[in-house]
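User: tokens in, sequence out, please.
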């Protein structure tokens, strides 16, 4: 961790010496901005900053199609080993399809005509995670004065918490599909006739956030209309699934829950290593945010599986939030080539998942 603490010596009484400069915050929050890195990241990548529909659509459709086909295999195949393997393939493919929700929060609403609707129809609503659960939430995580503070919905100082908090943080994700089913099949319909419950569900259970103190503000305008239709679609689908399972068989639903639980666990493990989680609540510079975030560039071979859709370049994403996922690898190569291996940029690059998990685990064991 980069420390830039400064000790100030008060001027003597009656002295004409100027007042001492206030100390910078501790840790990464006190990191001054590397203006050369920030400027280079923007200037070197202007020509690759446009989202390409010929990449987004096939990737999303193939990922979703493979995920659903493999899920059908997990349900229909009689051989337990082959069914389990099919379930793993389904979890990985649906994981990739689901993570396009991250792209939807950053691309301009007119950049990919129909993509938001198509993704919600094919992935978000069937998986009970419509884009309303991330849009208007994730952008707060990128806000200059919110990142790493108590007002950041996607930040917890995990590196400063107790060792048992890490496995608990990861394993609680296994309950996510059950929670989503209860939300869409029970809480949202009840909230339609019980306003206090509707407000509670919106404030506390409508966002893919990890900060338990986060409270979501009511939706407004065009976004409120989008929320209505997405909630209606998700609730209708959840109620249909429950009715079909009760009248036919619970087996497909239980297998689906198991597959989505694995998908949620993968995402939670990725979240564990998306940042260093070392900030203690202070507002951070953009460079501080970058250094508290993580790139896992090549030659790490498995990163596309556990951090798909460009999320292996998560630190770079915090420098260039609107850069489409298909351009991040090229942006990374250009910045490294321009700034060199001794730059601040290089300090955000790591070798793989396990070393990052080990670093985080060791941090939780340090005396506080």
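Assistant: Sequence out:
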């Amino acid at each position: 961790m980069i420390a830039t603490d400064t000790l100030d010596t008060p001027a003597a009484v009656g002295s004409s010496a100027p007042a001492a400069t206030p100390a910078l915050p501790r840790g990464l929050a006190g990191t001054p901005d590397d203006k050369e890195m920030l400027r280079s990241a923007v200037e070197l990548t202007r020509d690759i900053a446009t989202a390409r529909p010929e990449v987004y659509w096939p990737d999303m459709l193939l990922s979703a199609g493979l995920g659903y086909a493999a899920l059908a295999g997990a349900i229909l195949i009689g051989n337990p080993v082959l069914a389990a393997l099919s379930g793993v393939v389904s979890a990985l493919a649906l994981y990739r399809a689901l993570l396009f929700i991250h792209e939807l929060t950053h691309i301009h609403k007119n950049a990919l005509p129909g993509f938001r609707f198509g993704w919600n129809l094919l992935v978000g609503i069937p998986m009970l995670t419509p884009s309303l659960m991330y849009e208007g939430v994730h952008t707060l995580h990128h806000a200059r004065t919110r990142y790493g503070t108590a007002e950041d919905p996607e930040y917890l100082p995990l590196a400063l918490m107790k060792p048992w908090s890490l496995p608990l943080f990861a394993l609680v994700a296994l309950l996510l599909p059950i929670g989503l089913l209860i939300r869409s099949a029970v809480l949202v319909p009840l909230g339609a006739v019980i306003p206090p419950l509707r407000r509670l569900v919106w404030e506390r259970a409508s966002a893919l956030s990890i900060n338990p103190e986060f409270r979501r503000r009511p939706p407004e305008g065009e976004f409120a209309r989008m929320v209505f239709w997405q909630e209606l679609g998700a609730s209708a689908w959840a109620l249909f699934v429950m009715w079909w399972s009760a009248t036919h068989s619970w087996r497909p639903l239980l297998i689906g829950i198991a597959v989505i639980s694995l998908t949620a666990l993968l995402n939670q493990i990725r979240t564990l290593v998306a940042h260093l989680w070392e900030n203690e609540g202070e507002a951070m510079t953009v460079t501080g945010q970058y250094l508290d975030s993580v790139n896992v560039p090549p030659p790490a071979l498995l990163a596309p599986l556990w951090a798909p859709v460009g999320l292996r370049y998560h630190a770079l994403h915090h420098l260039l939030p609107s850069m489409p996922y298909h351009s991040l690898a090229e942006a990374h190569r250009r910045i490294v080539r321009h700034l060199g291996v001794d730059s601040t940029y290089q300090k955000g690059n790591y070798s793989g998942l396990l070393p990052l998990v080990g670093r985080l685990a060791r941090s939780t064991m340090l005396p506080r």
